[in-house]
Amino acid sequence: MSTTSPAPDRVALVTGASRGVGLGVATALRDAGWRVYGTSRRGSGPTGIVNLPVDHADDDAVAAAFAQIADEAGHLDLLVNNAWASPRGFAGFTAKFYERPISDWDSLIGIGLRSHYVAAVHAAALMVPRGSGLIASTSSFGSRGHLHSVLYGMGKTALDKMAYDMGHELTGTGVTAVSLWLGLIRTPLLLGSGLTEFAGFPVDRAEDPEFVGRVVAALADDPDLGRQNGHTIVTAEYGAEHGITNNDSATVPDSHRPAFGGGPLFPPATEPIDKDRR
């Protein structure tokens, strides 16, 4: 298992840190020595981090959280955008878009997408003057093929383009923006279901939430991080390339890219994948 040993003054903010991927990422960063802040609506989260009660539908509350971090820590090195909201009555992603209420937009786009943008604005305002930092947004293969629902896919695709365009505008600042394609996640709910596979993917080869956090930590310490600016990164593939494993210290999760047609990610295929955007 790959580990990192950042200086103790390195500061991260993980949004949506009370459960699932956010909880795993916050835990992994804490264990790697980061000073971690986490947001959730109730201010709950793992011990050993600063848990902030933030409703990401409230711009003032988000601004106050970043102001607190700036006041207490003095800077921010890493933002992991992970806040997400499920629409009211949304269960199983089984209904067609024309069978669902239009208000689904308010959760999946109004919060699930907009919250990432708002947090990135505040993070960049802290990072750019210092000339360093990483903004990572959790996306998924729903950007490549149909997954869950129309609005889910729209939001994830927008996150990839957001990272790409932010990367363009961050060129030369020392700050990097990336989008992360996560695979199937071994959440407590999934593990407790007794399923051995989900949507055709084996559960024992899926990603532990903490695995995603270890990938993020490795990215933040990657000496070639600048070359990833604006790119979409498959967490399973990055983990395999850098010796990062699941919590069992043995399993390297599978990439879902082949199941979604393979091919390049962002940036567009017309742009060389190794273009130096630093």
Q: Indicate the low-confidence ranges by residue numbers.
A: 1-7
Strand arrangement within the widest β-sheet reads 3-2-1-4-5-6-9
Fill in the CATH topology: Rossmann fold
What is the arithmetic mean of pLDDT? 90
Oligomer: single chain
* Total E-strand runs: 9
What is the level-2 CATH architecture name? Answer: 3-Layer(aba) Sandwich
Beta percentage is 5-15%
CATH class: Alpha Beta
Write the layout of secondary structure elements.
Blueprint: E1 11-14, H1 20-31, E2 35-40, E3 50-53, H2 59-73, E4 78-81, H3 104-108, H4 114-127, E5 133-140, H5 150-170, E6 175-182, H6 188-192, E7 197-198, E8 201-202, H7 209-221, E9 232-234, H8 235-241
Parallel strand pairs: 1-2, 1-4, 2-3, 4-5, 5-6, 6-9
Antiparallel strand pairs: 7-8
Question: What features would you describe in this structure?
Answer:
- This protein has 278 residues and is α/β, with parallel strands linked by helices.
- The protein is 33% helix and 15% strand.
- It has a seven-stranded parallel β-sheet with strand order 3-2-1-4-5-6-9, with helices on both faces.
- α1 links the parallel β1 and β2.
- α1 crosses α7.
- It is globular and about 45 Å long.
- It comes from Gordonia pseudamarae.
Outline of the structure:
This is SDR family NAD(P)-dependent oxidoreductase. The chain is an alpha/beta fold and 278 residues long.
